[in-house]
Amino acid sequence: MTGTTIGRLRVEGAELHYEVRGRGPLLLLVPGGTGGADSFEEIVDDLAEDRTVVTYDPRGLARSPLDDPEGPQRVERHAADALQLLDLVSPGASADVVGCSSGAIVALHLLTSEPGRIGRVVAHEPPVVEVLPDAAAHRAMLAQVRDAYDREGPMAAATVLAAGLRRPGDSPDVRPAAELSPRAAARVQRSMADAPYFVGKIIPGFMAYVPDVDRLRALSDRLVLAGGTDSYGELPYRPAAFLAELFGTELVHFPGGHTGLSTHPAEFGKLLREVLDAR
Q1: Cα 242–77–37 angle (5° rounding)?
Q2: How many CA atoms lie within 13 A of 229 on its CB side?
Q3: Element (H, E) at 251
Q4: At what angle do helices 102-113 and 75-89 cross, to 10 degrees?
Q5: C-alpha distance from residue 214 to each of 107, 180, 217 (Å)
Q6: What is the pLDDT of residues 72-114, one digit of tens each?
Q7: Is the pLDDT of residue 171 over 80?
């Protein structure tokens, strides 16, 4: 594996921090939540043994400042950022893409909008709730999140959101919080500063996103839909399970729950490599 190249890329309305490791076929890792490039720090070196791996902080998060922090955030704009980054690293080359949570929504959009540039996509629990039969109920929940944010601030909104993401009948203390390694715990602590932006700007735009289901179906041989072994029935799990059943494809289960990348990095990374190597 070669060393790490760290750089900055000017995109429309923002400046992105990015990192490139390794040599070989191109692989883009798109983080979810408040995570940035560091979300993948425990698995990226292994993946870079035989790939050129690109990680980055999405606009507005960590080291990627926005020109206008109050502006709305759209999946399409984030996907355009990712494509511009791929063009910088390897112009015209095809890339595999792995996305987690909100990053998986970006990965889905890249596949449907740029199929000539995107090879295999692994989408781990993309919360594209608009594909679900009960989408109206989740639309109402998101309206409550926005109302809580406007009235009481980001912490209140995060509480409403967390309740809406749980499986029906669960209470906050049904399961103990997943234990994190010191490295992962420190990473989560660093990312907490971006929680208001994520709840106030990313969640409203991303969870309202409507993917092109017909296009995804046509490209389903290049799409790996994934969920966590511990998150069956939770809202972020359900769209991936629904789409996999709709397309007649396998739902690949990764260790842990929605944040399995952080709670089970070694096992998560091992399975991810197997999935990417399978053709």
Answers
A1: 80
A2: 11
A3: strand 251-254
A4: 70
A5: 16, 39, 5
A6: 999 999 999 999 999 999 999 999 999 999 999 999 999 999 9
A7: no
* Residue that is written with structure tokens 């993948």 in the block: 40
Mean pLDDT value of segment 156-177:
82
Is 212 strand, coil or helix?
Answer: coil
* CA dist., res. 258 & res. 252, Å (int): 13
Closest to 104 in 3D by CA, of 250, 206, 241: 206
Look up residue 59 and give its amino acid: R
DSSP assignment string, 88-110: HHSTT--EEEEEETHHHHHHHHH
Give the pairing type, strands 223-228 and 251-254: parallel
Cβ 4 vs Cβ 38: under 8 Å: no
- Tokens matching residue 202: 């990313």
79 lies in which domain range? 5-277
List C-alpha distances in Å: 69 to 61, 73, 108: 10, 10, 25
User: Considering its fold, how many domains does the chain have in total?
Assistant: 1
Q: In a 3-state reduction of DSSP, which class is residue 217?
A: helix
The CATH number of the domain holding residue 48 is: 3.40.50.1820
Quote the CA–CA distance of 238 and 252 in Å, as a whole number: 13
Going by their DSSP bridges, the two strands 95-100 and 52-56 should be labelled as unpaired
Please report how many Cα atoms fall inside a 13 Å half-sphere around the Cα of residue 5, on the Cβ side. Answer: 15
Q: How far is CA 236 from the centre of its chain?
A: 11
Cα end-to-end distance, the chain, whole Å: 23
3-state helix, strand, coil in the chain (%, to 5): 45, 20, 35
Cα(246)–Cα(217) distance, rounded to whole angstroms? 8
